[in-house]
Amino acid sequence: KNNFFFNKIDTNFDIEISVRQYLVEKLTTNNFCISILKSIANKKKIIYPLPSEWFSHIENNDIKVNKFFSNTLFLIYALVLTILNYYYSLIELLLQTKYLFSKNKFSKKSYFFLFLNHSNINGFTKNKNYGVVSSVYEINKNYLKTQDNFNFYHTVHSIPNVKIKNIEIKSCNNFLPNITSLYIFFKCLFWLHYYFIISFLLIFFNKWHYGIMLYEKYKSIRILFHNHDNFSEKYFYPHANFIYKPLWALELENKGSKVIQYYYSISNEAYELNQKIYRYKMGFNLMTWKNYYAWDKFHKDFIISNCLHSNPDILVCGPISHRFYDNNINILN
To answer: Is 139 helix (H, G, I), strand (E, B) or coil?
Structure first.
């Protein structure tokens, strides 16, 4: 439930769903599937780091679980992850000291493209209609053409800052705003140490989710402690990590920004010829995103049927190009 540690970011926000999304993405990997197959083949109970709340659901599918060893492994997993989360958060926070007393040059008149690489951007910089950035520009061009000195931010440092049309392409170190205030720095530092100590102790009372989500919560706190002017109008989030909606994305929406999940592929799974037994098994039914770019009506209906959000905002915009390669491709006959 939402409480002091997980502040009520959204009236429809349920931290249990967020934690479940996170664990499904992190734990239900190929190793989990291999463990199940081995347990069936060897007729032994599965041993895998899993929260005890999942045991009954697994056993309902005729898969026996070694509860003691699985719970012990998960406790170790939670302890190690909590320490690592604290370490990563502290390092990131200490690195922010170089920005203290400087001016934040971030512009609210902007879009921020998350988790891109060089090939996703260079199509736009070369005036080609290929790549994620070019596709997003085409979708929003009627609005963008009316804007002066609009910014497209990203974190790919190999792309030089350049102005294309009325759009300035700029690289940033991070999508989180820099900490330029000593007050905010010490506020984050105090919160981090307090949260780490409490969440570490709570693991031994089977309240492991605080420590597991520590790094995610730290990033959302960085957003919470800044004002609305430090954030872009829209953030574009690729569907590669579609299951887990980060806590910081919820906080961005609370600040008035839109976080849009877009798809550069309409299919996420391998083909299944037997349609009678085919089911989506990758966590689509856990999605809680508010905003989507869909390719067509079928794609939109698919998102609506799987999204937990009661009324998602879905724009049907056609295919979204993923990459642009400017190297010559030799096709062998």
So the answer is: helix
**Residue closest to 317 by CA, chosen among 65, 134, 78:** 134
Asked if residue 121 lies in contact with residue 133, where contact means CB atoms within 8 angstroms, the answer is yes
Indicate the pTM of the whole model: 0.88
Helix (H, G, I), strand (E, B), or coil: what is residue 108?
coil
Local structure of 173: helix, strand or coil? coil
Contacts of residues 41-48 at CB distance under 8 Å and 24 or more positions apart, as own/partner, are 46/70, 47/73, 48/73
Predicted confidence at residue 269, as pLDDT, reads: 61
Q: Which pLDDT does position 11 carry in this prediction? A: 45
Query: What pLDDT, on a 0 to 100 scale, did the predictor assign at position 324?
Result: 62
User: How far from the centroid of its chain's Cα atoms is residue 24's Cα?
Assistant: 13
Q: Are the CB atoms for 46 and 63 separated by under 8 Å?
A: yes
| Structural contact between residues 314 and 304, judged by C-beta atoms closer than 8 angstroms | yes
| Contact between residue 255 and residue 222 where contact means Cβ atoms under 8 Å apart | no
The encoded tokens of residue 187 equal 């506020």
Q: Is 258 helix (H, G, I), strand (E, B) or coil?
A: strand
- How far from the centroid of its chain's Cα atoms is residue 105's Cα? 25
163-197: b or e for each residue (b if 16 or more CB lie within 10 Å)?
Answer: eeeebbbbebeebbbbbbeeebbeebeebbeebbe
**Contacts with 278 (C-beta within 8 Å, 6 or more apart), sequence order:** 272
**What whole-number distance in Å separates Cα of residue 67 and Cα of residue 282?**
24
Q: Per-10-residue mean pLDDT for the chain, 333 residues long? A: 49 75 87 88 93 91 93 96 98 95 85 93 86 94 93 93 92 92 95 96 93 95 89 93 89 94 77 51 78 94 86 94 64 50
Beta carbons within 8 Å of 150's beta carbon, 6+ residues apart = 109, 110, 111, 144, 166, 167, 168
Helix, strand or coil for residue 217? helix
Residues 167 and 70: their CA atoms lie apart, in Å, by 52
| C-alpha closest to that of 238 among 155, 124, 176 | 155
Q: What does the alpha-carbon distance between residue 60 and residue 207 come to, in Å, rounded to a whole number?
A: 24
Amino acid at 288: T
Within 10 Å of residue 38's Cβ, how many Cβ atoms? 12
